[in-house]
Structure formats: C-alpha cells, structure tokens
Amino acid sequence: MDPDRIVVLAGGVGGAKFVRGLRALGRRTPDRSPDVTVVANTGDDLWLAGLRVTPDLDSLMYALAGVNDEQRGWGRAGESERVSAELTAYGVGWPWFTLGDLDLGTHIARSAMLREGLPLSAVVERLSARWPLGVRLLPATDDEVETHVVTAEGELHFEEWWVRTRAALPALAFRQQGVETATAAPGVREAILAADVVLVAPSNPVVSIGTVLGIPGVREALAATSAPVVGLSPVIGGAVVRGMADACLTAIGVETDAAAIARHYGARADGGLLDGWLVDETDAAAVEALAGSGIRTAAVPLWMTDDDATADMAAAALRLAAR
Length: 323
Ligand code: GDP
Ligand code: CA
Prior knowledge:
It holds the Pfam family CofD. One of its GO terms (molecular function) is transferase activity. The chain is of the alpha/beta class. The protein has a domain at 5-45 and 179-322: Rossmann fold (3-Layer(aba) Sandwich). It is built from 13 helices and 14 strands. The strands form four sheets. It has a seven-stranded parallel sheet with strand order 5-2-1-9-10-13-14, sandwiched between helices. A three-stranded antiparallel sheet has the order 7-6-8. It has a two-stranded antiparallel sheet with strand order 3-4. Guanosine-5'-diphosphate is lined by residues 10-15, 56, 59, 201-204, 208, 233-234, 236, 240-243, 245, 302-304. Calcium ion is lined by residues 11-12, 41, 44, 55-56, 208.
C-alpha cells in the first residue's frame, strides 16, 4: 500500500523513534514518499520558571532534527546545565527536573512567541521551521490541558509524578486538567479526516495516546475517518520496553500485555480506536487471542533498534492497514 497521507498519534521518545522510522520508510521511495502529520501529546506540558515546556513535542522535534541525545534518551545532544544550576541556586524551578541550556533556548523562544499571542500550533510551526523535519508536527490542542496524577498524597502534575517520584507513588487516577473547554488544534481533525491511514505509535497508551484521544473532537474524527487505524504495541513480552508505562497501565486496570492494550483501545467497529494491531513476534499468541475481536492482528519484530528496523515496522503497519 502506498498511502499519500499518513497521520500518526504520538507521545515523546517512543513516538519520535517511530516517526523517524516512518520517515526512513518514505525515503526508500523518494518519488512517492507520503505526507506525514504527527499529532503529538501535550498533556506533559507545564509552566516552569516562567517558561512553557512541551516535553513530547520537543522529543519529536529534536529526534527528527537529529539533535537529540541518543544516549540519555531525552533532551539535546552536547548539552550543558549552567543555567539550571543558577536557577537551582535561586530556588526557582524543580531541582530534579533539569533543563539543559540548549533546551532552555527552545523554551525561551516558545514562551516569547506564546506571550506575543501565537497559539501553540503556530509556535510549533515556527520552531520546527528551523530544521527540515520531513513531517508536519501538530500539538493535539492549543489549549493548556495538563495531565494530573491523583495519588494518596494529593494531586501532582504528571512530570512531577513521573520524574520526581519515578512513578513509584501509586497512581489512583489520571486527570486532564482543563479538558472540558479544550478543542483540537487547527488541522488535527482535518488531517485525520483526510488521511489514507492513521497509525498509533508504540507510545504510552495512557498518558500519551490516551491524552490525545481525550481532547474533544479527536475521537470523533477517528471514528468518522475512512482511513484504517492501525496501532503498534509498546509492550513486548509482557514488559514496557523502556520507562515506567506499566505503572500507568496498572493505574487504569489494564494488564501490561499486548492483547490487553488492544482490548483497552477497542475495535473501531465497536466504537473503539483500532482496525489493526501489530504485536511483537514474542507476543504472537495475541493474534489468536484477538481473533474475533474485530481487530486484525499481526506479529512482527517491534524493537525500534534503528531507523531501518523501525521503517520495517512501519511498512508492516501499512500492509496491515491495506489488508
Ligand atoms: P514518552 O512520552 O517519552 O514517554 O514516549 P512515548 O509515550 O511516545 O513512548 C513510550 C513508550 O515507548 C514506552 O512505554 C515503551 O514501551 C515504548 N517503546 C520504547 N522503545 C520501544 C521499542 O523499541 N519498541 C516498542 N514496541 N516500544 C517501544
Ligand atoms: Ca511524554
């Protein structure tokens, strides 16, 4: 299948790896490479030290620009932390949430544009124009909808729960603060409705994909589009590949298991998200388990070890979409 327009729902680091692979797949057929629109999670965004920080959008932008820190897994390569040390000395910001100097440049630029009155989607367009990303990046919403985590010790911003407590404080629930009055960013619904294929990246199902789906209008557009919707499992062999996404799944009562996540997303025919679902080879039992669920499932290697391996995953997702 050679779709012209692909929409990807994505979180930060896992989403970015996947989109890089999809871009690499397009580059295998340069004369026919599709237009890719990435709808990114904005639930992790926050104001810190007077600056608007958008972690997932930045993970996507830096990885696609090739300026991300591959070793550490987040932020900019060749980073220094002189400014953060000064902020900590003044008692400003979160000492456990270090922002690198280069990264702070992005946050200052973003905050300046927001204060000039630009909506986030326009800010993202201006920031990412600096690099030839090869895809269109869209925040799921221009509104400030922040993920909060309800715990026995009170309600925390998602980043505080994730980074300071390392998701060790049991989450009782996740809340999208401000979602009631939010709308999808300009272009999001339009891109989904005009897509030939929608791909759900192997991102955190709860606080990345779940947050995008929670923005009013997004689910409706996904239900209405004629494009098949195919997801890729972030769980391999009963474990998340990296990070602590299992803590999020446990909190909402979903097993850390490829088939369980597909059931959680649901079949589009039953009002859910998915037409198709890719699991890793080691989870091939999920193909049987999901037979009759209305979700076409296939098993292929799902390790995003490099852009080429990830391009093969994206190709398998497009084949499943065409089936
Ligand atoms: P975040 O916003 O930075 O947490 O990133 P995402 O939500 O986009 O993605 C996080 C998820 O990516 C994690 O739950 C991992 O399980 C998943 N992930 C990371 N690397 C891989 C990989 O190589 N293969 C698969 N299938 N999933 C991965
Ligand atoms: Ca994130």
